[in-house]
Design goal:
Bound molecules: 2-acetamido-2-deoxy-beta-D-glucopyranose
Catalytic activity: Endohydrolysis of (1->4)-beta-D-glucosidic linkages in cellulose, lichenin and cereal beta-D-glucans
Protein name: Glucanase
Oligomer: single chain
CATH topology: 1,4-Beta-D-Glucan Cellobiohydrolase I, Chain A
Number of domains: 1
Distance between the termini: 49 Å
Largest sheet: 15 strands, mixed
EC number: 3.2.1.-
CATH architecture: Distorted Sandwich
Strand content: 25-35%
Enzyme class: hydrolase
CATH class: Mainly Beta
Number of helices: 7
Radius of gyration: 21 Å
GO molecular function: cellulase activity
Shape: globular
Length: about 425
């Protein structure tokens, strides 16, 4: 409690001393403990979460009116220039439970919908891991390292996506004179889709630029299908693009080099049945390793490996047919054969550089009104039909849909998990 009071006091001083960008309502980050591991054991860190800035009200400090229009763009009357905008507008703190984010110790649950005063509302939270200071993002450097987490996908039907991923966001959230709030208020998002948000690094995006950076999707899944996907960008760190440079083969690889067991032919590896190797009705642990060619943290990324644990047993990843042989990890040869855009944007070496520099850990839950998440779980990708992922259907039939991630650990290869059984790496 003493620590919390001190944090609020510091934020208040910063507001009066240097800017008007931080509002009156304090931001209280939900705590989420994480662990870092070496062969000597794991150490618990008091980390916390912050919702993306887009989920925070941003108001004109003179009138309390929103600096955004109803369609989510920047109000150019309040914000004719980025400088005037920064003088007029302030980000306010939020209540995390009313955005569908609940933490307890090392566990976080995210909900897609909330029933607020009898009405179903979409909240679809996206949150970032902050370092123990609560001021900047935690930077995970995962080259020649592994990361593990436990996930409960049992309450994610067809069309939902409970995601845990990394992108090359700036550690401070792009904190600047025009954006003193920074990572403390969840600014600075970027990913390999290069979308054009209303604000970039906390500054009004008046030119409609795209916010691009490399993205490593550790986990995009529901109870029916799962995919592991690196997306390389041929630029380092955060990058603003415009026009064609944001296009389908511009700065970033939007398609990725994905590994989906169902899509690659193994239809009984993952699903809500006791006959599936991973029974998605119960929680399980997911381990992802980023190996290098020379086994050092400065080498070239050479393989992205995966294994699972469930009921205390280590379970090898699905082994699928590929190139007259079998494949259970993402390799350069697999991406060369299947992911032309990933290769064009730098492929494994470029993804490795992003992992080496360090990335920010992101948790989200979302669904997809335009394509119903068919790429993840329908057609050749999974057992869902092409319309089951319609958000209107999900909201009507599963308004309580949620995902829970817990027990997040990263560190040296082989140090973040233990289990029994004959499963394991090849
Ligand atoms: C804006 O909100 C604050 C806090 O609720 C209040 O004190 C202030 O009077 C409001 N200003 C206007 C112009 O409504
Ligand atoms: C923009 O803000 C002005 C001043 O508060 C307001 O009058 C106007 O309706 C807003 N425009 C939009 C599109 O929200
Ligand atoms: C890489 O990035 C540049 C922009 O910096 C872009 O013009 C180019 O097309 C990108 N793609 C490749 C494959 O080099
Ligand atoms: C796979 O086997 C086929 C048929 O034997 C052969 O034509 C092809 O070259 C092989 N591919 C690779 C990558 O070895
Ligand atoms: C898809 O599944 C839903 C829910 O089970 C069902 O209502 C719908 O008729 C199915 N659609 C098609 C095209 O099979």
């Amino acid at each position: 409690m003493a620590v919390f009071t001190l944090t609020v006091a510091i934020i208040t001083i910063i507001r009066f001393a240097s800017s008007q960008q931080i509002g009156r309502i304090p931001e209280v980050h939900p705590r989420l403990t994480t662990q870092t591991c070496t062969k000597h054991g794991c150490t618990t860190q008091q980390t916390s979460l912050v919702l993306d800035a887009l989920s925070h009200p941003i108001d004109d400090i003179h009138t309390n009116e929103s600096c955004e229009t109803s369609s989510g763009g920047v109000n150019t009357t309040i914000c004719p220039t980025v400088e005037v905008c920064a003088e007029n507008c302030a980000l306010e703190g939020v209540n995390y439970a009313s955005h569908g984010v609940y933490t307890n110790g090392d566990s976080v649950t995210l909900r897609q919908y909330l029933n607020i005063d009898g009405t179903e509302e979409e909240v679809s939270p996206r949150v970032y891991l902050l370092d123990p200071s609560g001021r900047d993002y935690e930077i995970l450097k995962l080259l020649n390292q592994e990361i593990s987490f436990t996930v409960d996908v049992s309450n994610l039907p067809c069309g939902m996506n409970g995601a845990l991923y990394l992108t090359s966001m700036d550690a401070s959230g792009g904190r600047s004179q025009l954006n003193p709030a920074g990572a403390t208020y969840g600014t600075g998002y970027c990913d390999a889709q290069c979308n054009a948000p209303a604000w970039i690094n906390g500054v009004a995006n008046l030119k409609g630029l795209g916010a691009c950076c490399s993205e490593m999707d550790l986990w995009e899944a529901n109870s029916e299908a799962t995919q592991l996907t690196p997306h390389a960008c041929n630029v380092t760190g955060f990058y603003e693009c415009s026009g064609a440079a944001c296009g389908s083969n511009g700065v970033c690889d939007k398609d990725g080099c994905g590994f989906n067991p169902y899509g690659l032919g193994d239809h009984s590896f993952y699903g809500p049945s006791v006959t599936d190797t991973i029974d998605t009705k119960k929680p399980f642990t997911v381990v992802t390793q980023f190996l290098t060619s020379d086994g050092t943290s400065t080498g070239t990324l050479s393989q992205i490996r995966r294994l699972y644990l469930q009921n205390g047993k280590v379970i090898q990843n699905a082994k699928v047919d590929f190139d007259n042989s079998t494949l259970d990890s993402i390799t350069p040869a697999y991406c060369e054969a299947t992911a032309a855009t990933f290769e064009a944007e730098g492929g494994f070496p470029q993804m490795g550089k992003a992992l080496e520099m360090g990335m920010v850990l992101i948790f989200s839950i979302w669904n997809d009104p335009s394509a119903f998440m068919n790429w993840l779980d329908s057609g050749t990708a999974g057992p869902c039909n092409s319309t089951q992922g319609n958000p209107a259907l999900i909201e009507a039939e599963n308004p309580g849909t949620s995902v829970t991630f817990s027990n997040i650990k990263w560190g040296d290869i082989g140090t973040t998990y233990s289990g029994s059984g004959s499963g394991g790496w090849n």
